[in-house]
UniProtKB/TrEMBL annotation:
Coiled coil: 83-117
Family annotation (Pfam families): DUF4337
Transmembrane segments: 22-42, 126-147, 153-175
Protein name: DUF4337 domain-containing protein
Length: 176
């Protein structure tokens, strides 16, 4: 075997070694991508669920506000009506009014809390989705590295994977 053939064979083995490393790296990146994608979808689902619950609470708040308003009107009408029975009925509506105001405030607080929870999940989901984009780009760069055997694509893939991982990880640091 000539020296030239030996060098060529050695170079081919070196490229095969590079392809194996790039392929293994791509598999790791794909696993990270799967985890980030699942968490991203989970956070999006959490956002939508909290948003729906908040919407339900606001509708309930509106219903309580309407009942409070109706009690106010009934109380005012009964106060204007002469007689002991009207005064007793007006007192009942007055007690309902206080209860509706208290319940309305509790419902409003819960709705606002759910809205904050939805916004937090949305911010986390956004970070995870951005991280997912970088991890997908890393898969593309890794594929190009294997096809072209160019180390620049491999380094670009590693950089993109690192960025995607860091951006995704920071989603768990968002506390409010």
């Amino acid at each position: 075997m000539s020296v030239n053939e030996e060098l060529r064979e050695h170079a081919e083995h070196a490229h095969d070694d590079f392809s194996r490393k790039a392929g293994a790296g791509m598999a790791i990146i794909a696993a990270l991508l799967a985890v980030v994608a699942v968490y991203g979808h989970l956070m999006t689902t959490e956002e939508l669920l909290a948003q729906q619950k908040a919407s339900d609470q606001w509708a309930f708040f509106q219903a309580k506000s309407l009942r409070r308003y109706q009690s106010e009107v009934a109380r005012d009408i009964l106060k204007a009506t002469p007689g002991d029975r009207a005064v007793a009925e007006a007192a009942k509506y007055e007690s309902n009014l206080t209860r509706y105001e208290k319940e309305g405030e509790e419902i409003k607080d819960k709705a606002q809390e759910l809205s904050k929870e939805s916004a937090l999940s949305g911010r986390r989901a956004l970070r995870l989705h951005i991280g997912e984009i970088f991890l997908e780009m890393a898969i593309v760069f890794s594929s190009l590295a294997i096809l072209t055997r160019k180390h620049l694509f491999w380094y670009s893939g590693i950089t993109s994977a690192a960025l995607g991982s860091v951006i995704s990880a920071t989603s768990f640091l968002i506390l409010h």
